[in-house]
Amino acid sequence: MCRYAYSGPYKIHYACFDCRKAFKQPSPEDWMKLQGLGFALTQLWHAASYPPGRREELEVQFGVTLNELESRYRDAVFNCPECKQPMANLGRDFKAPRKSDARAWKAIQKVYRLGHAFQTCGCDGPGFIPASEHEYQDYLKLMHSIYLNHAKNYESNSGTNSDDRKAAATYWMSRVAAIESAMETQI
Questions:
Q1: Of 75, 57, 65, whose CA–CA distance to 41 is shortest?
Q2: 3-state helix, strand, coil in the chain (%, to 5)
Q3: pTM of the model
Q4: DSSP secondary structure letter of residue 36
Q5: pLDDT tens, residue by residue, 61-100
Q6: CA–CA distance from 106 to each of 36, 100, 129 (Å)?
Q7: Are strands 88-91 and 12-16 parallel, antiparallel or unpaired?
Q8: How would DSSP label each residue in 21-43?
C-alpha cells in the first residue's frame, strides 16, 4: 500500500499565492466526518464491492449520493487564514517553497493554473516544479504533447461510448488550449 492512508495524518496542502504560504486542510474523508457524513461516505465507497444495486439502496437510505458527497468536498472553499482569500488545493505531496522565494511561488502558480497539482499516492515524490523559465517552457511543450495525444486517442477510440469519447476529447482539447495560451503569453 502507498504511504498515504485514506484519512489521518496525511492532510491536503492548500496554498495562498498572495501570501505565499501553505496550510494543511482535512482530507475528504476527515472533512466528511466533521460534517457528520463520514459513515455515509465510507459505506458508499465500499459499496462498489457489494452486489449490484446495493449502492443505490444505501444512497436512498442515507439521502445522499456518492457523487453529491464528493462534489461537496470539491466545491468547498478553504480560505487563507491570513488574507481570507480562497486557497488552491495543491495535494498531499506539495512542499511549499520559502515565503521569500517569489520566483518559485510564481512557477507553482503557473503550473497550477494549467491544472498541475501534487495529487499522487506518494510513491513518486512531490512532483515537478520548474526552477527556471527554460524548464517551464520545456514543461509546457511536454504537457502540450501529452494532452494532444490523449485528445487524439479519445477521438479515435472506437471501444468507448460515442458521447463519452466526445466529452473526453473535448476535455483534453481544452487542456491543450490552456497550454497553447500559456505558451503564447510566454513569447
A1: 65
A2: 55, 10, 40
A3: 0.72
A4: T
A5: 999 999 999 899 888 999 999 999 999 999 888 888 999 9
A6: 38, 11, 10
A7: antiparallel
A8: EEEEE--HHHHHHHTT-HHHHHH
